[in-house]
């Protein structure tokens, strides 16, 4: 990434993080977003805390070396929460792409400079990479949720069949089939 864009983002980092956090919260219902934004206690508001710390760390990674394992450490909890809250894949990952608009709004007067624009396009590629990582995490979480649900339904059906006498725990012994007299 070019030094001019990186310097601008670092000089405006607090504002960018604040706007990105607010954009992230806007993906929730208004009352939920208000709570996540207003409640600062990390124990009373773990979702808000995870999102706030997450976007700050993710911006640092985008500005730096972008280490996938480190990114997953902060991205995974954000996306995992969204997966269990029934966000669609696009809803779960859209907050990442909102960073592009935030940056373009903050840089609007500087985008006439071709060098800054090229730097921004390169930076946006990193944002796209982050979004694709989030999508992969979301899909893995959803797959696990479906597996757990399928196993639970299978277990419930098996228990119902056993209660109805349609399945016995011990397989019948040869010559001793239930209901048949020899």
Low-confidence stretches: none
Q: State the end-to-end distance.
A: 84 Å
Characterize the overall form: elongated
Please work out how many helical segments DSSP would assign. Answer: 7
- Mean of pLDDT: 89
Calculate Rg over CA atoms. Answer: 25 Å
DSSP E strands, number: 0
The percent of residues in helical segments reads over 70%
Strand/helix succession: HHHHHHH
| Helical/strand content category | mainly alpha
Query: How much of the polypeptide forms β-strand, as a percent range?
Result: under 5%
The biggest beta sheet reads:
none
Describe this structure in words.
The protein is mostly helical and 182 residues long. Helix 2 crosses helix 4, helix 4 runs antiparallel to helix 5 and helix 5 crosses helix 7.
Structure keywords:
mainly alpha, 0% strand, 7 helices, 182 residues, 74% helix
TL;DR of this structure?
By secondary structure, the chain is mainly α. The chain has seven helices and no strands.
Helices and strands in order:
Layout: H1 3-11, H2 13-25, H3 30-38, H4 46-63, H5 68-84, H6 89-106, H7 114-163
Helix pairs in contact: 2-4, 2-6, 4-5, 5-7, 6-7
